[in-house]
Amino acid sequence: MCWCSSCPQGAAVCVCLHPNAKDTVTDPVLRSGQTWRTMMPTLRTLLFLGLWHSTRRSLASAPQFGNQPKKIAVVGAGIGGSAAAYYLRQEFGPGVQIDVFEPGEIGGRLSTVRMGDHEYEVGGAIIHPLNLHMKHFVDTLGIPPREAVSSKMAIFDGEQLIFEESDWFFINMLRLLWRYGFNMIRLQLWVESILDKFMRIYQYQQFGYSFTSVDRLLHAMGGEHFLSLKNQTLQEAMISEGFSQTFINDLVEPVTRVNYGQNVRIHGFVGAVALAGAGPGLWAVDGGNKRVCSGLLYNSKSVVIKERVTSVSLKLRPSKSGAAGSFYEVNSVGEGGASHSLYDIVIIATPLHSGMSDISFSGFSPSVPSHFPGRFHQTVSTLVHGRLNVSFLGCSSSEFRVSEVLTTASERSLSSLNALDPVHVPPGYRRPPGDQQKVWKVFSSEPLTQQQLQSMFLSWDSKSETRWLAYPSYSALQRKPPPFILHERVYYLNALEWAASAMEMSAISARNVALLAHHRWHQQSGKVDQEDLHMRLRGEL
To answer: Where does the Prenylcysteine lyase domain start and stop, copy by copy (predicted)?
Structure first.
């Protein structure tokens, strides 16, 4: 805690770097045994952490605007839609009715499955320690992080483990240096430089700035560098930075496979996000990450409507002054039949892509597409409560000590194999040894056959399979990302996941869309698409 008089009271980090300042920023959950993924945040990152906690911007607390919207619709109650409801309440204040349409479970792609006496994470599982929106959410909602359980990682090439973490840091470093030279150190520096630029978005959003397109948002964070990353493959980007092909094949591709089920031909920006997600300090929410969604909806005092939205139409209605006003009619269907209601603003927080949505748009000029180009990648999450056949990994029972197995492209049947802990870790819990019966999560691109299960497991008593269209199929040759603005007051939150899909990316997009909706409603163009924000704000600080 900073105690110097020059900083805001209670600042987590001394922004003025006073000699009496005390830095108590800590990660809520720390993993052990993750030497190869160690990276240290830069000074600028720490300053942004302090800025985030000490500078509490809220447009809702600013002088009240007279002409506020009366009703806002949010379509989808995953982390994006839930965060949008939360930020819309902050921006527009208590007088606005916020309706959230969700026919399924709250949480969307954040989900749990019960096996035996416990629930296990089957959807989005990890949160990075520098994901400041997610950290802010759990702090605001009073939800504790999940108890940490130490783990060790290995990499499987389809025949044997080509790397296995040791309990000893020195041994891990020697193995990596012997096989890959200084590629690991170079990787840490490369990812850190990208994170350093990425962290700018929190400063921009704290000062209320928003962006009308994905490319403008990325450019504000990382300039031409981020745009060029999005337009080349991760492999091309890393080769140009001097990384060896062996290092990319052995260590980088397993990370993209576990995080996105895809190889190093994904575009460079999402690849960098994947590599950042392999760092230390990863954490999760006690009781399941989906608790954040339900908590945000409760905190925002939103009305959850358990109906599926079928269409959005533009309607003109006369006003008291005689001039016609425009509204958006949201049509939906639920157990009670079809219904409709008029809204001033509509936020679409569900993917508008083939196989993901069947929402139609009518009465718009120019027309709003029901489906944008591109497809979503299928990842099958199979939970198995059983005893692992460690010989499948080329090991014997006596030597198998890992709980997280990543795979290279040579292994075609699975992307990763992880031992799971319950979403609520009970007191005294200890994960069973690797060769004993417990819950394993297998990521694969297709459902596992009975033969594949029999080769991986000696025995099992229960199994659960979830097929996710969890994230886009990323390509450096993909078309321009969808826009944030579909119509004058209709916004598309999921546009940003075409740059990278993650809980924090959805939260960033939710904040951006809420700010956009506010600024455009009140015609505050000075807060939209401003250039050179980094230099301008650094001058102000």
So the answer is: 163-530
